[in-house]
What does this fold into?
Amino acid sequence: MPTISNPPIVVGVDGSSVALAALRWATADAARHQVPLHLVYAIGVLGNFGSGIELGQFDFDTYWQGVRDALETARTVAVSESAPIAQLDISTELVDAPPIPVLRDRSKTARLLVIGTHGLGAINRRLLGSVSTALARHAACPVAVIPETSAPSDGPVAVGVDGSPSSVHAVEIAFDESAFRGVELIAVHTWSDFLRFSSRADMQEEGEELLSRSLAGYGEKYPAVRVRRIVVEDRPAERLLQVGEKAQLIVVGSHGRGGFAGMTLGSVGQAVLHAAEVPVIIARSAS
It folds into this structure.
């Protein structure tokens, strides 16, 4: 895999309002971090129009011009959105191939992959589209999934912590995002006495120790980030969603302590991704 000294933030665009929300979020994040922004429009195949439409009836020239115009409009939006923050290196790419494999491939050399919550034609915010779901499960870098209704916020960044390797990655991302946004970080760890024989007091103490270990060292690296710690008996997804209601971003690992090698997305990440009304970053990696 090629090594890029300053990997870009890659955002999928398709001319929809959902993709526009993702583009605006990605632009601001790229500008804060001073990293390149790469806009990818993967149109896929036109498919079968049905027996009532002959292929010759379709105006390919008009279609392609519309796609090019949509990509140029996206670039114009990115230039405008980044201008108040920082000058941004913006590139565009138009690919005649299905979006999932294209974006999955681009994620191999990306800092972050940003996509909307669903594609055109989705009937419910809570029902993620196939592109969003597939990339959250299979991308080779962290994936940010942005709801269409997302708005700028001065709320905190929330992160789920369980001590797993995936959680370590989530904590790194959460501190970085909190620092660049200049907001509080809320670190959440939950525990349960299910199939455990320790007392609740002991499990609370174990949870506090685990959270302390998971956050160790970040105070020195990010001294300006104020951290609020929550250790509580609860279901992890439910508590993280509750805390995340007033957050501007939730960060969660791709799978937790119950995960296994090759697992694509754990139950907590999946629950948060499908129910959160704020941007969510799934801490994926190439490994």
Remarks:
- The radius of gyration is 20 Å.
- The CA atoms of residues 79 and 276 lie 29 Å apart.
- The chain is about 40% helix and 20% strand.
- Residues 60-82 form the longest helix (23 residues).
